[in-house]
Fold this sequence. Notes:
Blueprint: H1 12-20, H2 22-40, H3 46-74, H4 78-109, H5 112-133, H6 137-156, H7 162-204, E1 209-213, E2 219-222, H8 224-230, H9 235-238, H10 250-260, E3 264-273, E4 279-291, E5 294-303, H11 305-353, H12 362-397, E6 404-407, H13 408-425, E7 429-437, E8 439-442, H14 444-464, E9 471-478, E10 480-485, H15 515-527, E11 530-536, E12 539-545
Parallel strand pairs: 7-9
Antiparallel strand pairs: 1-2, 1-5, 3-4, 4-5, 6-8, 9-10, 10-12, 11-12
Helix pairs in contact: 1-3, 2-3, 2-4, 2-5, 3-4, 4-5, 4-6, 5-6, 5-7, 6-7, 11-12, 13-14, 14-15
Amino acid sequence: MFGYLKKIEYDTKLIEALFKAKAGFVGSNLLAPLFLFFLLKDFVPLRILAVWMLLQMIVFLLRYSVSSRGLQALQSNKEEANRYLKQYLLLIFLNAFLLGISSLFVVFYLDITYSLFLLLIILTVLIASLITLSSVFHAVFIFITTTLVVFIGGLFFAHLSHIYLLMIIALVIYLVMLVVLSFRMHKTSVQNLQDIDNFKNLIDSALEAIVVSDENKNIVQTNSVAISMFGFKNLEDALGVNLSRFLPNDTEALKIQQALSQSVTTPYEVNLLKIDGTPFPVLAGGRDIEREKKKYRLTTLIDLTELKEKELQVLQQSRLAQLGEMVSMIAHQWKQPLSAIAATTASMEMKFQLKTFDTTTKSGREAQEMYLRKELKYINNLIKTLSLTINDFRNFYKPSKKKEYRSLDTIVKKALDIIGPSLSNNKIVVEYTAHDVDLVEMYENEIVQVVLSVFQNSLENFKEQTIEKPCICITIEANRVSICDNGGGIDEGIVQQIFDPYFSTKEKKNGTGLGLYMAKKIVEQHHNGTLNMHNKNGGACFELSL
């Protein structure tokens, strides 16, 4: 402990705590001396008491000035701050010496009763000093030892009666106890500071934003990531701000309230406000913690702004890819009707050029009219087919605004209406089985898109492979649908990657790698379902469950 006093080296935060402890020197330099002044003014010569009080006031003003300049120096120059610390310790010594001098007034001018009363006042001041000065051990050591040593010295000037001897012995024991206690309190302050620094370093090293709030939801600690995320200039601006400041509306407030009611909260998505009012999405989670018998809430936040922007880009690219697939499927479905219309009009033109019908006779004109009616009806039916194809695609790509109850049987048939002709043109057989089908709440067109993506994956695979009898087997049961093909399956080395964004085995043929990624996203995030794939019986098997 005494080796600790050989050099004056303290953390800036401990020095700052000493300089900020204004209440300590107000009590020891102002309140206690004023109380003693009024207590002793009727017994001690006023001139002596006035000089003593004046010196106390001068020391008070000097301590105030040095502490203020010391606080400013801490912000820029640590060496200069240490110089102010040494000046401050000297003033503490003068303060303690003057306080101890008051014992001489009692010895020379008052009796033992006043000595005991003065002792009580000084002991009260010493106890208070443990709280205000213990951050810097030199300060509390100087104040305690100087005050008590001068007081003990004053008692020696008395007649050394038994009562004074007992007081001296008691003060010596008390001095030792106070010094030991003050050292332990100082070490506790140092340990607390280290714990705080370790905790701050720990949360500052985290990649996500961390906010610690008290029971009133006020911020008591945060890390640099959170300061940057919310747009604060520094930590001081963030401390004390209530969490409600970041909530844009009652809906988000309800989410936060529900999360805070749980001791441990699983991650949830919520929209928050920056300090300037800019909204942004985050993934939040949290847990209750306890420090120094107080409850706090530790909340972790991940800014989803960049992720959402990338997700939007992926969605836009997916829509473009779907548009390309749609045009391709429309082309497949229009190819045969357009060819038939072209062939029919060519046949009609040829018949007119060859004058197949004798329009000079009634029977010839009737034959020509029957022929025209027949061919025009055929052409009209083909045009209706083209129109229905367009309507099917237009309805599919129109976004669903709300969930509705539909069966997977209906969904698969809708998808087959769209892609069926393409499957037929490639001579792909579809085997279909459905039983005990349930109604499931869903965004209809989104699930149609999922099923189409699976069909499209099989179709593209069949185009690349040479399969003698290509077949897609569809099985629907309850809220599950299984779509399996016999196209050779997917390499086991890449099975885990097929749902990743931009991953495609058809890069040379303009594969985007977004179809299955978006399909899985739609099923899992929009419908809380599952979409998985595994190889089975020489082919790829996709299983969708809602």
